[in-house]
Amino acid sequence: MNKNKKKPNPIDIHVGGRIRLRRNMLGMSQEKLGESLGITFQQIQKYEKGTNRVGASRLQAIASVLSAPVSFFFEGAPGEDTESAPGMAEEGAAYVVDFLNSSEGIQLNRAFVKVGDPKVRRRIIDLVKALAAESQD
């Protein structure tokens, strides 16, 4: 392994992860995002992994295509000051990001949002909690 190889900056990794999160929330492929920006899906992969830094103008274009403010990509970034309960916001945000970055999390979220009846939604939550409790026994 090349010891001189530069490691990605934690902010670049975070911004890339947020790009992936937003893209997945919209159900958009890397190919479609790349096409909208006039770049390859491989370039999108590099942005999402943090191996390539996203320039300001490119980030603005990505934000526009993904219908999100530029600030979205920096929310919960490493080193960001959090006023209330330091540590708790980052842990909660990381948990949600990890969940929504998983295939199952995306599928569950999309399906759950389509359930209109609040009583049915409550029953789904109760079911998932019961199944989680069973798996810990």
Topology:
Elements (H helix, E strand, L loop, with lengths): L9 H16 L4 H8 L3 H9 L6 H10 L22 H14 L1 H12 L3 H19 L1
Helix pairs in contact: 1-3, 2-3
Care to describe what's here?
- With 137 residues, the chain is mainly α.
- The protein is built from seven helices and no strands.
- Helix 1 packs across helix 3 (41-49) and helix 2 packs across helix 3 (41-49).
- The relative contact order is 0.12.
- Mean pLDDT is 83; it is low at 82-90.
Structural class: mainly alpha
Spans with pLDDT under 50 lasting ≥5 residues? 82-90
Mean pLDDT: 83
| N-to-C order of helices and strands | HHHHHHH
Query: What is the number of strand segments?
Result: 0
Estimated helix fraction: 55-70%
Oligomer: single chain
Contiguous helical run count: 7
Give the overall silhouette. elongated
